[in-house]
Hints:
This protein is of the alpha/beta class.
Amino acid sequence: DGLALDLAQQVQRGLPAQPGLGGAVGLTGGRGRGHGRDSAPLAPSRSPRLLRTLALPAFQDNYIWLLAGDDGACVVVDPGDAEPVLSAAARGLRPVAVLITHHHPDHIGGVDALLARFPVPCFGPDDPRTPAAATRVGDGDRVQVPELGGAFDVM
């Protein structure tokens, strides 16, 4: 009741894909099947809050994803490079958390610089290769993001 469809459900049902709650964010290694695609969408703690999904080009062939509210608060997903996020922040976006899906350098390379600039919570998989600043999470954990009115369930 009132739960917005995530992007994958919208596409499966033939609806136009629009930014909403959840989508392609994972915090685990995908149960051995890749890049953490098994995590659940952002679950609302109150009424659903629609989020914009923003892709920041990084490197030659990658993106850093932001899940942003209307007020500029955003979750940064897999910041392989800090500079695109810092540029977005200069334009009004305000990081409130960092989510890491896995340890590859193109996903964690900008974490330390971002956390030095923005003292926000950082969450990543329970893996020794995850940056030390990250709170380790695994199956069944819930990552709270109160600034966006919800939480990510880790699967």
